[in-house]
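Please decode residue identities from the backbone states below.
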């Protein structure tokens, strides 16, 4: 198994972290949450010579899924995730774009496969457990790799903050449960990347995050 690497490309006015996870030696990987600016994402993939095997979605908000159909068409790969509870959200991406007055065209999305708690997804020899973590969005999932002690948490948890819960389908109590019952028990030494801003480690968030202390 080669070393797993991550490249982060902040895209669109939302500055959402589109993430490319890949194997340094095998040069295979996945794209997580292509929120837009698909040409920039494709350029990064081509520059690094990565063969993308799938697109993974953490949830159905426009800033995370706005470019997913265009990238699927360009790469010819399947879209996996999120949980089916975000189906309606993904079927209304175009209306979300109009609500935020986005000028780039956005298409509604039906993933090739929704994911459920306990499933495993992978690229190369790198396997990730799927954790259903509602609260920010009903169908939000987290991708956790025990071997690398790494998780991609989307908008569930941020460095020093948590995902907002004032959008349709948001539930503050459910979000706190997701963090405290599913993420933090994985261990203080788990590193994470998130949907906006810098990542961190679960232990630091457990000790210092004002929403969790």
């Amino acid at each position: 198994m080669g070393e797993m690497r991550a490249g982060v490309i902040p895209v669109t006015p939302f500055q959402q972290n589109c993430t490319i996870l890949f194997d340094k030696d095998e040069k295979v990987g996945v794209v997580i949450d292509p929120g837009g600016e698909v040409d920039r994402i494709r350029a990064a993939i081509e520059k690094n010579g990565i063969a993308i095997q799938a697109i993974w979605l953490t949830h159905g908000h426009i800033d995370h899924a706005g470019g997913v159909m265009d990238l699927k068409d360009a790469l010819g790969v399947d879209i996996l995730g999120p949980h089916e509870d975000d189906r309606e959200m993904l079927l209304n991406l175009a209306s979300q774009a109009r609500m935020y007055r986005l000028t780039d065209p956005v298409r509604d999305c039906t993933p090739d496969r929704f994911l459920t708690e306990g499933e495993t997804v992978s690229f190369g020899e790198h396997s990730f457990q799927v954790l259903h973590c509602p609260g920010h969005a009903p169908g939000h999932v987290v991708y956790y790799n025990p071997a690398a002690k790494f998780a991609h948490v989307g908008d569930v948890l941020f460095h020093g903050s948590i995902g907002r819960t004032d959008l349709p389908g948001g539930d503050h109590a459910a979000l706190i449960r997701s963090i405290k019952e599913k993420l933090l028990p994985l261990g203080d030494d788990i590193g994470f990347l998130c949907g906006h801003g810098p990542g961190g480690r679960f232990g630091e968030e457990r000790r210092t995050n004002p929403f969790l202390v």
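Observation: The helical segments are 38-47, 62-65, 68-75, 87-90, 93-99, 172-183, 202-208.
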